[in-house]
Amino acid sequence: MPKVYKPGKVAIVLQGRQAGKKVVVIKQLDEGTKERPYPHAIVAGIERYPRKVTRTMGAKKLQRRSRVKPFIKVINYSHLFPTRYALELEGLKNSVAAEHFKEPSQREDARKTIKKLFEERYQTGKNKWFFQALRGDLSFHAKLPMDLVLQGTS
Fold it and tell me: What one-character DSSP code corresponds to residue 97?
């Protein structure tokens, strides 16, 4: 069977808290480990995408709206959907390792370095597709059931 999840491959998370978010595979473990006896990958993804910016915005507002909130996670292959896209991983490979998941402070340091790398990549304008949410603003879908409840009472 060909290896689908190579380092640098962009995938979409299908299950869990980050469902629908884009991730980049940092390390793949096809055979699994003693603690996790299933095929899985160490991934870094974007929990909160940068917001839309326009030319009329000031430098401070532009900087605030260009922030990225990353996450790092170990995800089962069955919860990932591969895409045709890939990211060059110069600094990402060294920033996250399996040992970082044991100690919270190491995990936080790894997340900060990934945030820096993602924001640099976003500022240069490379890989624009990776820094856009799959379906625009999903807050509409979160509000939908409440709207229906309010319409039913009036």
Answer: -
